[in-house]
UniProtKB/TrEMBL annotation:
<dbReference type="InterPro" id="IPR001763">
    <property type="entry name" value="Rhodanese-like_dom"/>
</dbReference>
<feature type="region of interest" description="Disordered">
    <location>
        <begin position="229"/>
        <end position="257"/>
    </location>
</feature>
<feature type="domain" description="Rhodanese">
    <location>
        <begin position="33"/>
        <end position="152"/>
    </location>
</feature>
<dbReference type="InterPro" id="IPR036873">
    <property type="entry name" value="Rhodanese-like_dom_sf"/>
</dbReference>
<protein>
    <submittedName>
        <fullName>Rhodanese-like domain-containing protein 7</fullName>
    </submittedName>
</protein>
<dbReference type="Pfam" id="PF00581">
    <property type="entry name" value="Rhodanese"/>
</dbReference>
<dbReference type="InterPro" id="IPR020936">
    <property type="entry name" value="TrhO"/>
</dbReference>
<feature type="region of interest" description="Disordered">
    <location>
        <begin position="1"/>
        <end position="29"/>
    </location>
</feature>
Length: 257
């Protein structure tokens, strides 16, 4: 959100994040601002499953499109004005302290992997009457890169959408692998489950897949292995065969002589 004009900003009324973070898992526009009333992880459930900030609320969404309905249910959004009410407390970071007349408006802090989803979530919350909305500058990735593990409030690993699958503090590659059946992270313990089958299913997608889908996945995996893509579909095509042109060239030269 740094730079650009207000017209370029998708959420022009949001509180601009500060350049410098302090270790509460969030970045505020001013250091004097009090702690947020609720810290929300706006990522999907399978991402949160392997790591999150201590005390953060998990919306249990499977896709970002579910976030607006979760907010509506969670805070019991009213139709009139900017009235926002909390549906209850789930932890130390989930309390209401700011009051506007008879209305209680929570200060909301959010975070996601790199900050993009927070921009969309901020715009939505502000349109629904929330007045103080903050987010983690640079997302979890910047936090893990800059904050030492000994001082960190992060618990677990962070899911990333590349071949690393997950990262830890210092952005070191994590321990999770990817289920090619559902594209979700799995641990070593998950891969010991009887529901785990490489390239086909894992404990998180086994029951949702039909036998027909599993058979198709097995056939696909056999093709990958047959064509040399042993590591799975993200490894690319098998290497091209090396062709020795020395003999044909020699024969052609002999004919020309």
């Amino acid at each position: 959100m740094d730079g650009g004009t207000e017209e370029d900003d998708p959420s022009p009324r949001s509180t601009r994040p500060a350049e410098e973070a302090y270790n509460r898992g969030m970045v505020y526009a001013e250091r004097k601002n009090p702690d947020p009333d609720v810290v929300i992880d706006v990522r999907n459930d399978y991402e949160i499953r392997i790591g999150k900030f201590k005390g953060a609320v998990d919306p249990c969404t499977t896709a970002f499109r579910d976030f607006p309905s979760w907010v509506e249910d969670r805070f019991k959004l009213a139709d009139s004005g900017d009235k926002v009410e909390s549906s209850g407390s789930t932890g130390a970071s989930d309390k209401l302290t700011k009051e506007k007349g008879s209305k209680k408006v929570p200060r909301v802090a959010m975070y996601c992997t790199g900050g993009i989803r927070c921009e969309k979530a901020s715009s939505f919350l502000l349109s629904e009457g929330f007045e103080e909305v903050y987010h983690l500058e640079g997302g979890i990735l910047r936090y893990l890169e800059e904050v030492p593990k000994t001082e960190s409030l992060w618990e677990g690993e962070c899911f990333v959408f590349d071949k690393r699958v997950s990262v830890e503090h210092g952005l070191v590659q994590g321990t999770f692998k990817l289920c090619y059946g559902c594209k979700k992270p799995v641990s070593d313990a998950d891969m010991k489950s009887p529901e785990w089958e490489y390239g086909v299913s894992c404990p998180y997608c086994f029951s949702s897949k039909s036998e027909e889908e599993k058979e198709r996945a097995r056939a696909r995996q056999k093709q990958f292995e047959r064509w040399g893509i042993i590591g799975g579909p993200d490894k690319g095509r098998r290497p091209a065969k090396t062709v020795d042109f020395s003999e044909p060239c020699t024969a052609q030269m002999s004919k020309s002589l």
